[in-house]
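Please, structure for the following, as tokens.
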Amino acid sequence: MSTTNYTPLHNLPPLAGLADFDSARQPGLSVEESVRRLKRFHYALRRLHEIFVARITAEPIYEFKMGFSLHSHYCAEHAAALRVRVGEMREPPLGLEVVPDEMLAIFFDEILSAPETALLLAGIYSKAVPAIINAMEKYRADVNPLADAPSVRVLRFALLELQDIADYGAKALKALGVRADETWLSLLEQCLSASGGLDGAAEVCPGKIARKFSAQPYRYDPVPKRDERFPDPYNMGVNAEVFLHDPAMPAPPKCLMMYYRRIREIDVPEMMASIITETRDKPWTYYKDMTRQLWDEARHAMMGEVGFVDMGVDWRKVMINFTWSLGLNTQLNPKERHGVLYYIEQGQMPKTGKRYEWEVALMAENALAATFQDFDWADEVLHARVGRDWYVSEFTSAKEAVEWGDQCWSKVLIGWREWRDKGLTTHRNWWPDVYLAACKNWNAKPDAAVLAYHETYETKRADLKVIPASA
């Protein structure tokens, strides 16, 4: 094909800046081939989303819970965009729920079933994510940039965040010094080769693939795990809600307690992961919306983490429990858990909820806390909409939905006395030590009333339920 000597008027950028004429004259992929590859990208992102969500709860390392929450959100969003694009190119049925290749299915099954964190990280970040990136970049090189400009745009945005995921993974693997089982990594490569690469565009290298970790179907572990920085996860010795709403307590230490409420939201992704993982056959928008809320809750936990750092307080001295996610995950079914989540969310909407926390931060003249609470409040409005769309819609009225959620919450047994009697915790009141540490950093004299504050779950029957900071 000859090189064109056509020049636009005034030498302006041609073709809306999408491409030059030489690249736009290349035929590129057909619609049929484009759709075939895009459907494989969609499958890969959907499976990666499944892996990230399914492994949040039982992953002990806090940073990975947070990272998986964000990365699952990215995957859900870009899978949704690919679904829309495929729908623009073909009439239904689109076949987006069909497994495109059995070898590709084994590839992701093996990563999902990896028995330990190091293997999981290696499978995700050294194999799956690079394979998706390479396949998408090849697609962009193979298509006609003008004819398939909508697909190129979808992949351009996806690649930005997939590269962020890859960069995070590379740093994590280096930080941990991960040396995965080379035999297993070779198995993953064999799966990709036997499927013609992630996009199915390469030459197929046939061979018999023997499953290793996925020889037995993966089983979701609903029991939350925490790393060594959470020494007392059964501790329920401090009632943050009573302290926050006590008019006798001053605003600055209430900000400290709000940071505790925020970081305690670790348990919301742990619980929401169980709903998403165990709820099948919903529209993809359900998984996208629910994963967005899961990510928001992880973001709130990190707001608490940043708040403690800002106050110069070591959050490892704060006893952050997992009793809420443990109770819901092990005692309720997915719909019941969603009912409890929605019920608690409704309690955050009145003036005594998120607005109140924001006002406390303003009274304390704590600009960072005010910013965090302002956005936390905004997120709750979105989460209420998610609840209406995917939970309330299954009832005849919002009132019925709230009442059913309340009933589900009343079914959850919090065994704080049992945990104490078994030696799992003493329910130590850690609050005075944390407050004194904060006062030292503030160069402030401790308030005697704040120091005297102590509320145990033995003194009030109502305190037997800890209301999570979320939801």
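The chain has two domains: 28-215, 240-464. DSSP finds 19 helices and no strands in the chain.
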